[in-house]
Amino acid sequence: MYNFSNKVALITGAAGNLGQAVARAMYRCGAHIILADRHPDRLEQIYPDLSGSSQVYFATPFDLEVPESVHLLITRVVDRYGRLDILANTVGGYRAGQPVHQTTLDTYDLMFHLNVRTAFMISQAVIPVMLSQGSGKIIHVSSKAGSQGMANSAAYNAAKSALIRLTESIAAEVKDKGINANSVLPGVIDTPQNRAAMPNADISKWVTPEEIAEVILFLASDAARAVQGAAIPVTGKG
Question: For 79-124, how does the pLDDT look when each residue is reduced to its tens digit (9 = 90+)?
Fold first, then answer.
């Protein structure tokens, strides 16, 4: 198990299935965790066992789609802890099912808004803090879908690909400043929502949130100090 007892970790999308797995994994490793989600009322419901812990900070209100909210959050984190060591950004969204010529601009804009713009804004906010302390780990969750175009999901594929390129660009800019930036590329994640949506799928080939969280822990650790700009597939047996 990694020892993050002297680390401060921000987990965005903390109410989601993957966000929960990452948050609890970081907590078990001793990190001080900041749980941020656009549905703050869900955090108390999801983490009743962590409420009141000095190791946990529920960041509310917070909306990663609003620049002022993002910068207010980072200001509060720095005021509270004096530093920020790890960003695990699990925020994203999915919409697909139509070929390019039938995909609406609203869908295209939504995919880039949820998957790229949010990552861009949170990166802009945390990088100055990490530069000032001379260290930090940035991990964005992209998708296997970002590594290859597929029929009927062009907007989603393109957005997830853009997130990979964004992470690579960040890594190129900060790799000499003590900061690591990498992304993980899950395949189909074993969640209740995906099981309901694909009842006939072979679930044994899916990847669990906990398995993805383990890779994120590695990237957040000193063991990954030489890993920069990587896009790591985490696809289970799929």
Answer: 999 999 999 999 999 999 999 999 999 999 999 999 999 999 999 9
State yes or no: cis peptide before 61, omega within 30 of 0.
yes
Q: What is the pTM of this model?
A: 0.96
Domains of the chain in start order, with CATH, are 8-234 (3.40.50.720)
156 catalytic residue (yes or no): yes
Q: Which of 2, 27, 57, 156 is catalytic?
A: 156
Q: Which two tokens stand for residue 2?
A: 């990694």
**Among 11, 186, 183, 166, which Cα is nearest to 94's?**
186
CB distance 235 to 185 below 8 Å: yes
Distances (CA, A) of 216 to 6, 66, 227: 17, 25, 12
Distance CA 27, CA 12 (A): 14
Q: Is 94 left (phi over 0), alpha (psi -120 to 50) or beta?
A: beta
End-to-end CA distance of the chain: 26
Q: Where are the beta strands (DSSP E) in the chain?
A: 8-12, 32-36, 56-59, 86-89, 136-141, 179-186, 231-234
